[in-house]
Design brief:
Strand order of the largest sheet: 4-5-13-10-11-12
Largest sheet: 6 strands, mixed
Strand content: 15-25%
Helix content: 25-40%
CATH architecture of the largest domain: 3-Layer(aba) Sandwich
CATH topology of the largest domain: Rossmann fold
């Protein structure tokens, strides 16, 4: 082989490797969810100038030319199968533990008991770190790596902290976690084992968030709080893509979703709009229902009072630590989605959650977190009011593994 041929082959290989190392990049800008103001992509941002969440925007016409239903058939069963509508540019910056691709389980025995012919459980407990939080933190940490961040910090009531600790460890970043002192022990141990520096706070997640905000500039931390950076929502939206794909590109009639910060609810709605823009689905949308705890129900209170924002819920308390979010920065987005979809918002007691977890477990073999099991009593209310019919296609989201909540089920854990 002539030297010129060797050189030409070598050049071709390098060009192909360079192309493969860079993902398709269809992000156009970031946009304030309130004002619509544009911000440059691939730069560090937390909230907009208006103090509201930033949303990632894509050239969906171009993305749709590369990301097709046919192409998905040959891709791995994780959330990165939708990479053209995710913000990471370089493949080397993807931080993954195999998140996404969670099962959509027909709940036949539970459905038969309730008179529902099409009841499903989307089981997010099989994600790495045992909760749907893995989706959002995989994206947040991947983008932190891409943008040169070395230290990440998070206020968390539990599962988000564990997910951040895992992905930060995987990425080689320093992780700083701030948790309420009464956070379930499993979450605290998980963060410590994964190498995060854990600080326990006497108070709620909002108090933890205030501590992160107070110290982040001096400490050099990037704050990955719920909706206070643009990328966790991008991971969570893949739940919407998966639902559509698992239902052969239709959407369910009803989605019941446990809501704390609300990133998943907002993310799925964003996914539905993106899929419609790419021609994958039509304009029909599920009726979206937020599920909260009676001890912490800011969105429920705001929805039923006709408010466009949800003031902080006083003296917040519930065994479902993921629902113990007294004030959500994306409140106005959630309330708008609930109303546009024709859905609603309901709260249940801790006792109802625990009993529902036992019922779901005994009938379907899924050990739900209290947040996920809270959907069941709400579904029964909707049936009683005629808002859900026997042939409606209904999806309950189980957002985490019940085994992380042993204290909530009256079981002792190590001190």
């Amino acid at each position: 082989m002539q030297p010129q041929q060797v050189k030409a082959i070598s050049t071709a290989i390098k060009q192909r490797q360079t192309k493969e190392a860079k993902l398709y990049m269809f992000v156009t800008h970031l946009e304030c969810s309130l004002t619509g103001q544009h911000y440059a992509a691939n730069q560090l941002h937390n909230l907009s100038e208006a103090g509201k969440p930033l949303l990632v925007k894509y050239d969906l016409a171009q993305a749709g030319k590369h990301l097709t239903k046919e192409r998905l058939r040959t891709r791995a069963g994780n959330l990165w199968r939708y990479r053209e509508v995710l913000p990471v540019v370089h493949a080397a910056n993807i931080v993954t533990l195999g998140e996404g691709g969670t099962p959509l389980l027909p709940a036949r025995q539970l459905g038969a008991r309730m008179g529902l012919s099409q009841l499903f459980i989307k089981d997010e407990s099989v994600n790495p770190t045992g909760a749907f939080k893995a989706r959002g933190l995989a994206l947040a940490v991947s983008m932190a790596k891409e943008l040169g961040i070395k230290k990440v910090a998070i206020p968390s009531a539990g599962n988000a902290a564990g997910a951040m600790a895992a992905y930060a460890a995987r990425a080689g970043l320093e992780a700083y976690v701030f948790m309420p002192r009464d956070t379930p022990a499993a979450n605290r141990y998980e963060c410590e084992v994964l190498g995060a520096k854990v600080t326990l706070i006497d108070g709620l997640i909002t108090d933890c968030g205030a501590e992160v905000a107070r110290r982040k500039e001096a400490e050099g931390w990037f704050d990955v709080s719920t909706l206070k950076e643009p990328y966790r929502i991008e991971g969570k939206k893949t739940m919407g893509y998966e639902l559509a794909e698992q239902f052969a590109w239709t959407l369910p009639d009803v989605i019941l979703y446990p809501t704390g910060g609300g990133t998943g609810l907002i993310g799925m709605w964003k996914a539905f709009d993106e899929m419609e823009a790419m021609g994958w689905i039509g304009s029909a949308r599920p009726r979206m229902y937020t599920v909260q705890a009676t001890g912490c129900a800011p969105i429920v209170r705001a929805f039923h009072n006709g408010w466009n924002e949800a003031p902080e819920f006083e003296n917040a308390h519930t065994v479902a630590s993921g629902l113990r979010v007294p004030r959500a920065v994306g409140d106005f987005i959630m309330l708008d989605i609930l109303r546009k979809s024709g859905g609603g918002a309901e709260a249940v007691t801790d006792e109802e959650m625990i009993e529902a977890a036992k019922e779901i477990g005994a009938l379907e073999g899924v050990f739900c977190a209290p947040e996920g099991s809270a959907c069941l009593p709400v579904l029964r209310r909707l049936q009683a009011r005629g808002e859900v019919g026997p042939d409606d296609k209904v999806v309950i989201f189980n957002t985490g593994a019940g085994v992380k909540y042993l204290e909530a089920f009256g079981l002792k854990t190590l001190n």
